[in-house]
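Dear U.,

For the methods section draft, I wanted the exact inputs and outputs in one place so we can describe them consistently. I've listed the two proteins in the order they'll appear in the manuscript figures. Please don't edit the token lines directly; just add comments below if something needs changing.

First protein:
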Amino acid sequence: MPEDVSIVGFMSDWVSEISTPRITFVKQNLRDLSSKAFQLLQGQIKGDDQTYHFVTSARLEIRESTRKEKSK
């Protein structure tokens, strides 16, 4: 890695810190995600059976498991 294959994880920043090479990962805003999940749970408890779609912020943390693009 990363010459032949790149590895990207999802929500695994702790794994990236203990692996060699460190793994690139997508990190979501857990506070926002958990708040929206709680709101959905409250609605379901109150009898709301509607389907909702939410978008949360995320960022890509590029580490050593992903090849860097060469400068031209």
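Second protein (the one for the lower panel):
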Amino acid sequence: MKRITSIVELYGIERTFGSGENKISILKGIDLSIDRGEFVALMGPSGSGKSTLLNILGCLDRPSRGTLRLFSRDISSVSEDELAEIRRLKLGFIFQSFNLIGRISVLKNVEMPMVLSGMPRDERRKRALDLLETLGMAHRIDFSPQSISGGERQRVAIARSLANDPEIIIADEPTGNLDTKNSLEVINILSDLNRGGKTIIMVTHNPETTKNCSRVIKLRDGRIMEGAS
């Protein structure tokens, strides 16, 4: 008997905005499964629906129609509080614009998800320090995000995404604001995390960033292109 390894399952996912004559259909029946331990890239031109799909996968938005199952659980049946808990404990997010809090230190940025999950102070500080050291940012712990480079900010953002040891990392154009050297470093970090067992779902427009991905899924006009899934 085949062992079920899918950590993400989508069936007939549609997403529309507006109503009547103003109704816009962004996703048009997405069927997709992602196995535990995959490194999946979502690609497509502007307006193809890849960011909308990523928002649904990250429980930041709900589909208008269809079924999303995460960790063998139908997400349509969970409350907003339960969705928040899934995002906090099961998913780690990396954004193109870093989304770090400028008024607090690098260390406190990495600690923040653990604060929200109720981790004791000493425990979360030790984990934040360990993550920053692993990512080569131990020398920046007391700096503010505004005073470090873009590549360093993304390393901090990656450390923050790992704070609660998530099962899935959701990366939205993680190299979009970086030069070639820093882009390569970020992709290498994500590849190392994937080899360590993390499932990674990444939106990207750059084919160079997909070389270490296990699968590239191409979207166009709200649909997965034939043969891309």
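Candidate sentences for the figure legend, describing the second protein: Residues 180-195 form the longest helix (16 residues). Residues 17 and 24 are 5 Å apart (CA to CA).

Thanks,
Y.
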